């Protein structure tokens, strides 16, 4: 029988999942079994062409093994496109840091992280940083987080403030840009600059995610060609309405999901 085992073709006479595990591992108690994309403890009968992954608990799989596992979870068609994709994230605060983590877990091929700031204690209520990152540049702290999630993702960083003068050169190699700035004037600057000077770039922006209003008011909509806006478009941060982890992460999820859809060629919200 020909199977796809841990990312490689393998011929075996084993007819069941557990018998194949026993053939490959003398100590099988610490092995996770993934059968056609689903984790299971059951002894399933195998069929020609099945995809099987065996992962040792607590151990980092090889790049081939992790690739096979991601492909099984996402389906080959989806994962191959995600693996080839390059995405830039402008601003690594509550939105950008959480978008980056979501895309890293999705198996994105190349992330371009852009920010000039450092991690401060006030960031810890909603951003994807930890105590150990305090004082570090956000780009470097987030790169280390991504390496802990998937060390095989390529991460490039720019420790600079994005301006109207450098925006085009910074993002000239990025087909998709996530706008994740805190301030409205910076958002407008980046959107207007890129849409005018690099209209082929697809932009995923956000507006309206402060407070603890209903999660259901956060949506994604296509504003016009190549510009997508996530949020409720009205709940701005102000006295009495702060930025809190739940709504920030919900909006970041909207942005990450729209980016994934664009990678897969789905341009409608």
UniProtKB/TrEMBL annotation:
Residue ranges of every copy of the THIF-type NAD/FAD binding fold domain listed in the record: 79-268
NCBIfam families xrefs: PRK08644.1, thiF_fam2
Name of the featured protein: Thiamine biosynthesis protein ThiF
GO biological process terms held by the UniProt record: cyclic threonylcarbamoyladenosine biosynthetic process
Stretches assigned to the ThiS-like ubiquitin domain: 1-58
Listed GO MF terms: tRNA threonylcarbamoyladenosine dehydratase; ubiquitin-like modifier activating enzyme activity
Superkingdom of origin: Bacteria
Provenance organism: Clostridium carboxidivorans P7
Lineage: Bacteria, Bacillati, Bacillota, Clostridia, Eubacteriales
InterPro entries per UniProt: ThiF/MoeB/HesA, ThiF_fam2, ThiF_NAD_FAD-bd, ThiS-like_dom, Ubiquitin-activating_enz
Record's signal peptide: none
């Amino acid at each position: 029988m020909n199977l796809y085992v841990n990312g490689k073709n393998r011929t075996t006479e084993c007819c069941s999942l557990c018998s194949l595990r026993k053939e490959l591992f003398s100590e099988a108690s610490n092995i996770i079994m993934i059968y056609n994309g689903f984790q299971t403890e059951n002894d399933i009968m195998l069929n020609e062409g099945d995809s099987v992954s065996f992962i040792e608990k607590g151990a980092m799989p090889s790049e081939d093994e992790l690739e096979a596992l991601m492909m099984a979870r996402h389906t080959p068609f989806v994962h191959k496109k995600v693996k080839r994709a390059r995405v830039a994230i402008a601003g690594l605060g509550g939105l950008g840091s959480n978008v980056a983590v979501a895309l890293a877990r999705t198996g994105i091929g190349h992330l371009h992280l852009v920010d000039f700031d450092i991690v401060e204690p006030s960031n810890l209520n909603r951003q994807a940083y930890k105590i150990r990152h305090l004082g570090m540049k956000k780009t470097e702290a987030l790169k280390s987080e991504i390496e802990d999630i998937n060390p095989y993702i390529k991460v490039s960083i720019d420790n600079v403030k994005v301006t109207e003068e450098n925006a085009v050169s910074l993002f000239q190699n990025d087909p998709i840009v996530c706008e994740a700035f805190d301030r409205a004037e910076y958002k407008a600057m980046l959107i207007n600059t890129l849409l005018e000077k690099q209209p082929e770039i697809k932009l995923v922006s956000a507006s309206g995610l402060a407070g603890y209003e209903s999660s259901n008011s956060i949506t994604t909509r296509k504003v016009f060609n190549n510009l997508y806006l996530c949020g409720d478009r009205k709940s701005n941060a102000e006295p009495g309405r702060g930025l809190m982890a739940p709504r920030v992460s919900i909006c970041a999820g909207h942005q990450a999901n729209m980016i994934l859809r664009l990678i897969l060629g789905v341009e409608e919200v």
